[in-house]
Amino acid sequence: MPGVAREPIEVLWSDDALVVVDKPARCLVVGAPSRGGTTLVDRLTRQLGARVYAVHRLDEDTTGVIALARSEAAREALEPQFRAHEAERIYLALVAHAPSPPSGRIESRLTEGEDGIVRSVTSGGGERAVTTYRTLARREAGVLVECRLETGRRNQIRAHLAELGCPIVGDRKYGWRARDGAAKPARPLLHAWRLVLRHPFTGARIDVTARAREAELAPPP
């Protein structure tokens, strides 16, 4: 919001080519034509004193690790990794019910409906989407699950977990409903925990993690 002081974005890794940060909730990565407000790209550009460029996305209320290029050349070199799904992206989600089976691979074709909800389709169309998951721990408010993206579609993890019968806690859009007397989180409890990619120019492996702010999303030791 204009005129409201914001905490600096936490930088997790940086050099002249790219910067990896911990994205806060309620923050779009880039602007949408119908949306106002300050984006992650805007905030980082001001914070670093130089323009940054988005190369992949996180949903507005998803927190965690995201990489941005610091030059046009770096963006052009980084984007193919994400288009080819070579970058490793690992998320943590607190879900309402224990997945059955406790680990697995979900593959479908996803499309967005007129209501803005992403769903699997069985009769052609849509984009191929693959998510692997495994159960990590039971928590008081739900079950902690690790998800790995083999593709990177919009709302992919949220849609796949909901279709598995395990909506993310706090994700009302995808079917979560609070139990009587249970706390209602301010956002869907989905966190981009780890990102592994290659440096755009040197090819060196970069492996970055971000600790979730919510205790329920802390991975077991």
The topology string of helices and strands comes to EEHEEHEEEEEHEE
**Could you say which structural class the secondary elements and strand pairing correspond to?**
mainly beta
Q: What is the end-to-end distance?
A: 38 Å
Counting DSSP H or I runs of 4 or more residues, the number of helices is: 3
The CATH architecture designation is 2-Layer Sandwich
**Gross morphology:** globular
CATH superfamily: Pseudouridine synthase
Q: Mean pLDDT, nearest integer?
A: 92
Please tell me how large the radius of gyration is. 17 Å
CATH topology: Pseudouridine synthase
Low-pLDDT segments, ≥5 res = none
What kind of sheet is the major sheet? 11 strands, mixed
Give the oligomeric state: single chain
Whole-number total of structural domains: 1
Give the amount of beta strand, in percent. Answer: 25-35%
Describe this structure in words.
By secondary structure, the protein is mostly beta strands. The chain has three helices and eleven strands. Helix content is 13%, strand content 35%. Strands 1, 2, 3, 4, 5, 6, 7, 8, 9, 10 and 11 form an eleven-stranded mixed β-sheet that branches. A hairpin with an 8-residue loop joins strand 3 (53-54) and strand 4 (63-69). The longest helix has 12 residues, at 72-83. It is globular and about 50 Å long.
